[in-house]
From TrEMBL, chains A, B:
EC number: 3.6.1.1
Protein name: inorganic diphosphatase
NCBIfam families: PRK05427.1 (NF003877)
Highest taxon of source: Bacteria
Catalytic activities: diphosphate + H2O = 2 phosphate + H(+)
Keywords: Hydrolase, Manganese, Metal-binding
UniProt source species: Arcobacter nitrofigilis (strain ATCC 33309 / DSM 7299 / CCUG 15893 / LMG 7604 / NCTC 12251 / CI)
Cofactor(s) it depends on: Mn(2+)
Entry-linked InterPro entries: DDH_dom, DHH_sf, DHHA2, DHHA2_dom_sf
One Pfam family recorded for the sequence: DHHA2
GO CC entries: cytoplasm
Amino acid sequence: MAIYTCGHTTPDSDSICSALSLGYLLNKIGREAIPARQGPVSPETQFILDRFGFEAPELKTEFAGCELFITDYSDRGQAPADLDKATVVGIVDHHKLGDITTSTPLECWIRPVGCTNTIVKEMYDFHKVEIPKNIAGIMMCAILSDTVIFKSPTCTPVDIKAVKELAEIAGVEDFGALGMEMFKVKSAVEGVPVRDLILRDYKPFDMHGTKVGIGQLEVIDLAIFDDVKDELEADLDKLRVENGLHTACLLLTDIMKEGSEVLVSSEDPSIFEKAFNVKLENGKVWLDGCLSRKKQIIPFLEPAFA
Amino acid sequence: MAIYTCGHTTPDSDSICSALSLGYLLNKIGREAIPARQGPVSPETQFILDRFGFEAPELKTEFAGCELFITDYSDRGQAPADLDKATVVGIVDHHKLGDITTSTPLECWIRPVGCTNTIVKEMYDFHKVEIPKNIAGIMMCAILSDTVIFKSPTCTPVDIKAVKELAEIAGVEDFGALGMEMFKVKSAVEGVPVRDLILRDYKPFDMHGTKVGIGQLEVIDLAIFDDVKDELEADLDKLRVENGLHTACLLLTDIMKEGSEVLVSSEDPSIFEKAFNVKLENGKVWLDGCLSRKKQIIPFLEPAFA
């Protein structure tokens, strides 16, 4: 039986690229694998796939009876709804350990690094499998995306080393320039419905029994949101109510200024204010230096709901 | 802050030896570590420690405010009671993925192999750290113990390769003979209180909300239990009631005949009978070929409680 390699719901570039890179590796070591994705491909990811000549992996949301090698998450909230009917044979991830459990032994490659593809690189090295040029390219782009071209506090020396080695294999001389090109694509918002923007890189969390949703948009210049910010705020309220969330946040991250404006819709905004020791103004606040949802938002917001 | 390396409650040889071997590795790569254990040292483990010149690691049951690198489990039921007040920085394990979660990224080295020390060996290789002779000795013994000298169905080629390499480093020519010597020590039951026997290698489980406890005694000849079996059965009943368990099992494993007699105390023994398609006689049954709690008991018993 083939193993599906698949990342989280609302897939980002790391989820799609790690499904492809891990899938290739498993096939190479004699374990038949099929890369998959749980949702649509973002413009950034499409740019990466086009740049290195890949088709998007198969869209698949039901995994009952299948073997699944999870990439880039370990939380049930980001898993297919029928996860309990699938067999999880492995997890490769770089987040906190989530609430997925299994009934049989599996392999977990979980590391506190900036990107899942950095760990997939470790797996290639462990299995002594050569990384093809185009696979190296998408892995490198995923790491540049997740680490915001090394600016994110989640970035580690292991990620930087991986990018340099992958760039060499992929034949990309100026990976910084390619990264900026990628973030320019990511920054394009014109004509995109606000709901699509909120959900582009959105993750639902269960914080001590409280439902919280956090989206993030990383752009080169925050000014592009000037015309749509009111609409974004109104739709964030709607999304919160529709999904029965206590709190819905949207991080508008300026990767050049290195900080985020956070839009907050909440049943009780004082929880957010206390968590970050800030005062919201019209449901918004600028958090200087904040680039990472994982490292600079969740560890502060989660304990606030305990 | 030093990282405590520590295995599960009611530690077996793998838990103690992996705390020591992982602790040494972490110190070598510049992360200060202190091996610890959550409970008493079994006769088998004492034999291993004596054979290679080790003191037992520090006894420690409270970890609030500490950093903890967990070895040999990922279930809360086997963790210190104050786990939520500790920071789990890593997990190295070879069981199914349990219900421990974290609020920060960590490193998990989880593999479907026969022993945690086999994975610690992988970690030494990854970090290119030389394994000292005596550390190699205790790692090798832990693998021989967990894999029942390669007879257990949990044993993989990776475990066998690790033992051979570790035996070479430890300067042990006949590791099979050493394994048998170890199991002879393990088989000694004379003068040991029955409760101590039941708890010697005992693990509590939460099976879909139902509390189940399973102990295992691996011996060279089952006949040694002839005189104490009635007492064991009576005490297993007592233990079940005292701990509010639905079912308590004790596997009496004959490693030479390669099978286990299972003593079953249960609120509803028919669940066990259905799970294994057997009929209990006076609360007991011989399961031919059954050597592994992890691979031949839990995967059948757990779904029976779903």
